[in-house]
Specification:
The structure holds two protein chains of two kinds.
Chain A (H helix, E strand, L loop, with lengths): L13 H9 L5 E4 L4 H10 L10 E3 L4 H6 L2 H14 L5 E4 L2 H5 L4 H9 L6 E4 L7 H16 L11 E4 L3 H4 L8 H5 L5 E4 L2 H10 L3 E3 L2 H9 L6 E4 L2 H9 L4 E5 L13 E2 L3 H8 L6 E4 L13 E4 L3 H4 L3
Parallel strand pairs in A: 1-2, 1-3, 3-4, 5-6, 6-7, 8-9, 8-11, 9-10, 11-12
Helix pairs in contact in A: 1-2, 1-7, 7-10, 11-12
Chain B lengths: L1 E7 L5 H14 L4 E6 L18 H6 L12 E2 L5 E4 L10 H14 L2 H5 L3 E6 L6 H4 L9 E6 L3 H16 L7 E8 L6 H12 L3 E5 L3 H8 L4 H4 L4 H18 L2
Parallel strand pairs in B: 1-5, 1-6, 2-4, 2-5, 6-7, 7-8
Antiparallel strand pairs in B: 3-4
The chains are: A alpha/beta, B alpha/beta.
Chain lengths: ~300, ~250
């Protein structure tokens, strides 16, 4: 079965990525599920939940909602919540349930716009893709709703895109709605795979750089041939700083980053084959991947990856 | 771009009407796509010389990951681009979900942006029974619904259900009912019954297709009557309908 996890736990799915981008922006976030996905997002994939709560709700779908397609009921529930919460937008975040019953997000948006005087963002995530895809969807919706046309000097203040806790752990960088409103005048840094997607949407030039990788380089002396299994921008940053490395990633690998030895992997066995190939003196990856590399005798440098392991 | 969804009771002749209408548009020099939205996957067979097209769900079931429109379509009479959604084995899975999965794939492949058709026709299984079967009339897909009916009671009953479903979707930005295609079965008082229904609903009968052996004869050899019997009364009516729809689109 493609993508089956036999050793690792499942990675953060797209709805978690979507919420990760939206979390601190002051919106009313409604996850369209029965409750389990919201529990997973808040309990496992969103470290900020335990320190700074945001308005993240479950639609609380029940069997009859799925059978009858009661989206008018959902719209009234959301409208009622929006009256009681001081939110700057409403975001509907999809999960496998609406994907399966073919929920029409465009229709929900139209219906909500008639009842709620706030921007309505709809994110058709489906729980079958990975977090970076959901982050990209969230940036696209945010830009469509909030990005201004104010094109000022490109030497403007730096804006880091894609540095959510799922990739950066507690070294994440929040983006505000004001940042997005002024995005066309900012100097953009794509800090992860979703950061590249987000930066591309603006049509502006952008720098690709991971502060997480730079921090690792500052504290480690790395020699020899390296396999790095993390986000692609993490790997590129190591390479740009003189590390002779191949990138293996379970997430998106853009053509603008990919080089000869780089690979997008789906199966656990693919990582095992790479790790045990004898080609690498050093592996830089989350420690959870060591279970897949039993017998590897080179040096292992831990690079925690929250979306993979839930470790900060 | 003219985007039309054809609905109507099962067995009323939707695929016959749709493929003849596609052929009529093509005969007028238009670039046409026909998308069959039925697990039986036989909507386009008479545009393809009687040879069935492998449906999208079948390709996905076999583990295929199509990256181009060519992998999931075939060109038929008049260069009409034919696509069949297909669906699960009868009695299993969810056919509506199959339609949504196919539409998502067509979006990912950028069908409309890359192919740039003049006309898109969706041939939809029977009634609007669930969210999946309403997908062709959602925002971004068909802009008008044409209902195929005869004067038979159950066909008019289904036509009424379709009208109600479309009305229920008014606040969602869905397609509107563009008219009725009367596919004559020569039942007693047929025209009067359908005219009364149309008047009651406030919609027009935009075509009256005669019951014709030419249609049957052409389908026996895998053709539409627009292709196989272009001088027949039925073919002439289809071409008239195509011109009328293009004129209406042009006058918007």
């Amino acid at each position: 079965m493609r993508g089956l996890r036999k050793v690792l736990t499942p990675f953060a799915p797209d709805q978690s990525g979507a919420v990760s981008v939206l979390y601190n922006l002051g919106g009313l976030i409604v996850i369209i599920d029965a409750g389990g996905c919201t529990g997973n997002v808040c309990g496992f994939d969103e470290p900020r939940w335990h320190g700074a709560r945001a308005a993240v709700f479950s639609a609380g779908l029940r069997d009859m909602d799925a059978i009858l397609g009661r989206d008018t009921l959902l719209v009234s529930k959301i409208a009622s919540a929006a009256e009681r919460i001081d939110a700057r937008f409403v975001a509907l975040v999809g999960t496998p349930v609406p994907a399966t019953i073919a929920t029409d997000y465009k229709a929900l948006k139209r219906m909500l716009e008639k009842k709620v005087d706030l921007p309505i963002l709809t994110l058709p995530t489906d729980g079958m893709k990975l977090y970076d895809s959901g982050e990209s969807v969230a940036y696209k919706e945010l830009f469509e709703a909030f990005a201004g046309d104010d094109v000022r000097a490109s030497e403007g203040e730096e804006l880091v895109l894609g540095a959510t806790p799922l990739t950066y752990g507690d070294s994440y960088t929040d983006v505000t709605l004001e940042d997005i409103e002024s995005i066309r005048g900012r100097r953009l840094v794509a800090a992860s795979s979703s950061g590249i997607e987000a930066a591309r949407l603006t049509g502006k030039d952008y720098e690709i750089r991971s502060s997480l990788a730079e921090a690792l380089l500052a504290g480690e002396k790395i020699e020899g041939k390296v396999l790095v299994c993390h986000d692609e921008v993490f790997g590129k940053t190591l390479r740009d700083n003189g590390i002779d490395c191949d990138i293996a990633t379970f997430f998106t690998l853009h053509d603008e980053i990919k080089q000869g030895g780089d690979i997008k992997i789906t199966e656990e066995d693919e990582f095992t084959s790479l790790a045990l190939s004898g080609r690498y003196d050093v592996i830089i990856a989350d420690n959870c991947l060591q279970k897949l590399a039993k017998g590897y005798e080179g040096r292992w440098i831990d690079a925690p990856f929250f979306a993979l392991s839930g470790r900060m | 771009m003219l985007k039309i969804a054809i609905y109507g009771k099962g067995g009323i002749g939707k695929s016959t009407m749709t493929s003849n209408l596609s052929a009529a548009f093509a005969s007028l020099g238009k670039k046409v796509i026909q998308i069959g939205c039925d697990p039986k996957a036989d909507s386009t067979i008479n545009l393809l010389g009687g040879v069935p097209l492998k449906p999208v769900i079948e390709i996905l079931r076999e583990g295929g990951e199509p990256t181009s429109i060519e992998e999931i379509s075939k060109k038929g009479f008049g260069d009409i681009l034919c696509i069949e959604t297909g669906g699960p084995t009868p009695g299993l899975g969810c056919a509506g979900r199959g339609i949504i999965a196919t539409f998502n794939l067509l979006d990912e492949l950028g069908l409309f942006e890359s192919y740039k058709p003049d006309v898109v026709l969706y041939d939809v299984l029977g009634d609007v029974v669930c969210g999946g079967f309403a997908a062709p009339i959602r925002e971004g897909y068909a802009e008008q619904v044409l209902i195929v009916t005869s004067g038979e009671k159950m066909a008019l009953y289904a036509a009424n259900n379709i009208c109600m479903a479309v009305k229920n979707f008014e606040d969602r930005g869905y397609a509107h009912v563009g008219g009725i295609i009367l596919n004559k079965r020569n039942v007693v008082g047929e025209e009067e019954k359908v005219e009364a229904f149309a008047e009651d609903k406030g919609i027009d009968i935009i075509a009256r297709i005669p019951r014709s052996d030419d249609i049957t004869r052409c389908e026996d050899v895998g053709k539409t009557c627009v292709e196989g019997a272009p001088e027949s009364d039925a073919a002439v009516e289809f071409v008239k309908l195509a011109k009328k729809l293009l004129d209406e689109e042009g006058s918007k």
